Amino acid sequence: MHRKNSPCIPGNLDLTDADRQSRIDQFYHPFESLLSSTLDARPEARALVTIHSFTPVYLGVQRSVEVGILHDRDTRLADAILDVAQGFRIARNEPYGPNDGVTHTLKRHALTRDMLNVMIEIRNDLIGTPEACAKMADTLADWLETALIRAQKLKEAQL
C-alpha cells in the first residue's frame, strides 16, 4: 500500500512486474515466513511489538511527535502503553496510522492469533547514537513491561 502524500523513491520508479515480484520473493516472503513460523513455534508468546523510526521532517513539515504508539483494531496494548508512557511527546497512531497501511504485520500475524500487539515509531533524531539507542531501548522496555501486565489482565478479564 502506498502511504498518503509519500514522496517517490527513485529506486522504486519504473519497476517491471518481474522486478517487483523479485523484491517480494527476496525480501517480503522470507520475512513473513520466518515471522509466521516463529510465532507458530511459540504459542505462549504474549505480544507482537514492532519498532520503527521516522524522520523529524517529512515533505517539508516538522513533526512534533517524538514517539508514536500505533495500533489497528486491537487497542489493548497501545492503550496500556499510552497510560504509562511519559517523558516524550507521544501520540496515538502518529506519524502514521492504519489508514496509511502500516499495520500490515500486526493484522497478518497478531490479530489472527489474538495476540496483544503494537507498533512503536520513534523519531530517528532520538536514536542517532548507540547511547541514545540504549537509552530508548531501556525506556521502551520499562513501558512495555508495565503495559504488558496491564493489557494481559484486561485480555484475561475479557475471556
Keywords:
single chain, 159 residues, alpha/beta, Aminopeptidase, 2 domains, four-stranded mixed β-sheet, two-stranded antiparallel ribbon, 4 helices, 6 strands, 17% strand, globular
Question: How many domain modules?
Answer: 2
Give helix and strand order, one letter per element, not per position.
HEEEEHEHEH
List unreliable stretches of 5+ residues: none
Q: In percent, how much strand structure appears in the residues?
A: 15-25%
Cα distance spanning the termini: 34 Å
Outline: globular
- Average pLDDT works out at 91
Helicity range of the residues?
40-55%
The assigned structural class equals alpha/beta
CATH architecture of the largest domain: 3-Layer(aba) Sandwich
CATH topology name of the largest domain, in short, is Aminopeptidase
H/I helix tally: 4
